[in-house]
Amino acid sequence: MGTESIYGDHLPELEAVKKRLLAEIDTLRKNVKQKYGMDPVEHCLARIKSEESMREKCRRRGLPETTESALTEIHDAVGIRVVTSFISDVYLVRDYLASLPDCRVVEEKDYIRHAKPNGYRSYHMILLVDNHVYAEIQLRTISQDTWASLEHHLKYKKTLNQDTNLIVQELKRCADELASTDVSMQTIRDAIFQIQKDEDR
Ligand code: GTP
Ligand code: MG
């Protein structure tokens, strides 16, 4: 019957993986905070893709709307977004998750080093957890997150028919300015850490 979940009876597994990854990120945050006095993560969001979005994605990809498609063909039933203050923290969290014994990185897209043409920046990683559940991790700085939210918002405002080109250009310019500020902030952070290190010696 059409009322059955596309996830079949696998929702508890998905929830468990989501919880597990959030717990791992929490552990990393605590350890880094203890060691360096600074939390690498600003905030963290997690979701299980809704029934409607999953069905819509199956259709868009030309896949049958089955549990098989949802769990093995599509890899973002579990989604985690990690927002960090600094660029280096994106890679810190990436390395930590990639090093977990029962998580295998099956795909990575570094849209920070290679921004999308529209200016989108973020680090995407697909993890295969316990050999059977996929999770998509998006890692980005606060600035990158701010930009992505605004861009996402505008993309779904259907009234934007005129002057779209100019808007796209302006958005791209904002993305690049934010990226440049992120680099400056990283430099300031590194300088502060260096001073602290020298004083501790
Ligand atoms: P799907 O997995 O089908 O979405 O396509 P893909 O694997 O080619 O996409 P990718 O891994 O590049 O991006 C997946 C997710 O990243 C999207 O669902 C968005 O959440 C986010 N994303 C990617 N590109 C953009 C963008 O240009 N703007 C915004 N706001 N978000 C983006
Ligand atoms: Mg994807």
Automatic annotation (TrEMBL):
<dbReference type="GO" id="GO:0015970">
    <property type="term" value="P:guanosine tetraphosphate biosynthetic process"/>
</dbReference>
<comment type="pathway">
    <text>Purine metabolism; ppGpp biosynthesis; ppGpp from GTP: step 1/2.</text>
</comment>
<keyword id="KW-0418">Kinase</keyword>
<feature type="domain" description="RelA/SpoT">
    <location>
        <begin position="46"/>
        <end position="162"/>
    </location>
</feature>
<dbReference type="Pfam" id="PF04607">
    <property type="entry name" value="RelA_SpoT"/>
</dbReference>
<dbReference type="InterPro" id="IPR043519">
    <property type="entry name" value="NT_sf"/>
</dbReference>
<protein>
    <submittedName>
        <fullName>GTP pyrophosphokinase family protein</fullName>
    </submittedName>
</protein>
<dbReference type="InterPro" id="IPR007685">
    <property type="entry name" value="RelA_SpoT"/>
</dbReference>
<dbReference type="GO" id="GO:0016301">
    <property type="term" value="F:kinase activity"/>
</dbReference>
<dbReference type="InterPro" id="IPR052366">
    <property type="entry name" value="GTP_Pyrophosphokinase"/>
</dbReference>
<keyword id="KW-0808">Transferase</keyword>
